[in-house]
Write a structure and sequence with these properties.
This protein has 315 residues and is mainly alpha-helical. Helix content is 58%, strand content 4%. It folds into 2 domains: 3-83; 111-299, hpI Integrase, Chain A. It has a 3-stranded antiparallel β-sheet with strand order 1-2-3, with no helix packed on it.
Length: 315
């Protein structure tokens, strides 16, 4: 094992033990730093010239957002080396790597389209021809209602367990990025009813199949094998009902999160409340939705602009 590879492993172990980073974050760090080592030919120490070559390769291969993340991974790695006095000079310290990242607005699903989408799942439940088809539709309703009702990430939804949700109080405990917890309240009675129907369906199914109620290690949403429902399964679920509903636009799980935030903003909900509900650590991340909220902007300018009160005297 060469020097830089050994130091990367040392850093990742530090991140795992002392920073308590989750598995996905560590995997992303490993990919970024391994690519960094490969581009710089595993030479150590790293010079400013090698770093400039690395930045050039990044800009040629990746989008600005990805470039920004990979640079952040490398900078954190070298800060660790400097702090541990493994290196005496940090080549990033005098390197100008600031660049403007183009603004990419989140795509949202219009409220009428969401209603059409959800209605398609409810119809599937109503006209199910077999008990299994009905069970699937009951689960899918609960999944999609909860996704839209809370604005949680698809990974957060798929990792929920029964112990994380209280259907009496309507509270959901969500484990977000960086192992941060937040509690959200389900305010719509139809969503709670959908979750209760799903609970009844799951438990009765276990009883009929002689499976213990703890099947699936307590995961809230299960697949046909009583294992945790995967993120890809939810994506496939969305594609299925988009097709059934006859919706032409492409819809992804994250668009429900974007729509949750934008529609709340258009309903005059304070952006700091939305920030907490989404689990954003910085308000800057949430402010992107202010660019999307064009419907509310139109309403304000048409109804509340002072020009509307001015009458011109042409006499």
């Amino acid at each position: 094992m060469n020097d830089i590879t050994r130091l990367i492993e040392l850093y990742l172990e530090y991140c795992r033990i002392h920073k308590e980073l989750d598995r996905k974050t560590l995997k992303a760090y490993r990919i970024d730093l391994t690519q960094f080592a490969a581009v710089t030919d595993f030479q150590f120490p790293i010079t400013k010239e090698l770093l400039n070559d690395y930045l050039s390769v990044l800009h040629q291969k990746f989008q600005p957002k990805t470039v920004k993340r990979k640079i952040a991974s490398a900078k954190a790695f070298f800060r660790f080396l400097e702090f541990e006095e493994i290196i005496s000079f940090n080549p990033f310290s005098k390197l100008n790597i600031s660049f403007r990242e183009p603004l990419r607005l989140p795509r949202i699903i219009p409220a009428p389209v969401i209603q059409k989408f959800l209605s398609a799942i409810y119809r599937e439940r109503q006209f199910a021809k077999t008990p299994y088809q009905k069970q699937v539709a009951v689960r899918d309703i609960a999944v999609m209602e909860l996704l839209f009702a809370t604005g949680m990430r698809i990974s957060e939804l798929c990792h929920l367990k029964w112990q994380d949700i209280d259907l009496e109080s309507g509270r959901v405990l969500i484990f977000g990025k960086g192992s941060k917890e937040r509690v959200l309240q389900i305010g719509n009675p139809d969503v709670l009813e959908a979750l209760r129907s799903y609970r009844t369906s799951v438990f009765s199914n276990f009883e009929q199949s002689a499976e213990p109620l703890t099947a699936g290690s307590g995961w809230l949403f299960l697949n046909r094998r009583h294992s945790r429902l995967s993120e890809q399964s939810v994506r496939n679920m969305i594609c299925k009902y988009v097709r059934i509903a006859g919706i032409t636009m492409h819809i992804t799980p994250h668009m429900f999160r974007h729509s949750f935030a934008t529609l709340l903003l258009e309903a005059d909900v304070d952006i700091r409340y939305i920030q907490k509900m989404l689990g954003h650590s910085s308000i800057n991340t949430t402010e992107i939705y202010t660019y999307v909220s064009t419907h509310k902007q139109k309403e304000i300018l048409m109804e509340k602009h002072p020009r509307n009160l001015m009458k011109m005297d042409e006499g």
